[in-house]
Write a structure and sequence with these properties.
Blueprint: H1 22-37, H2 41-45, E1 48-55, E2 63-64, H3 66-77, E3 81-84, E4 95-104, E5 112-122, E6 128-134, E7 140-142
Parallel strand pairs: 1-6
Antiparallel strand pairs: 1-2, 3-4, 4-5, 5-6, 5-7
């Protein structure tokens, strides 16, 4: 069966692909970067599906619902800025990855920089259903400037 066939191998109609397009996932992660850099908390939250989860960093407690809203309220309050360091990468499924440096000003202490790799899964509508951030203690340092 070719990729352009609209019928399954059993002769029945093809089932709709439950995965978003690669373009939709890339656009979602580009919007994530842009909205965080613009301080648009509500815009960032709108990129997440109901019931979405955030594990940032991997190994920390999972955030859901109101915890995600509070997380992005802090993100804006800490003047967070994301700089991608590699192109967004897609997959043959419903996941895409963003490698970046993020700087922010916590309430106490110096401005910090974290080097992270975030892997997000998406629903068919292109909304983020999970975000897992891969960074460890060695990936955190004081930010320049």
């Amino acid at each position: 069966m070719s990729l352009s066939d609209d019928r399954q191998s059993d002769g029945g109609p093809a089932k709709a692909d439950p995965n978003p397009s690669q373009a939709a996932m890339r656009a979602g992660l580009e919007a994530y970067v842009s909205r965080i850099n613009d301080g648009d908390r509500d815009g960032v939250i709108a990129l997440f599906a109901p019931g979405a989860t955030i594990e940032d960093p991997v190994g920390s407690p999972i955030k859901q619902g109101d915890e995600i809203t509070a997380w992005f309220s802090d993100t804006v309050a800490y003047r967070t800025h994301i700089t991608p360091v590699a192109p967004i990468r897609g997959s043959h499924s419903n996941a895409a990855a963003l490698m970046f440096e993020v700087s922010f000003q916590p309430p106490e202490g110096p401005r910090l920089l974290i080097r992270s790799l975030d892997i997000c899964t998406f629903n068919a509508q292109g909304l983020i259903t999970s975000l897992k951030a891969y960074w460890g203690p060695d990936d955190v340092q004081p930010a320049n400037g």
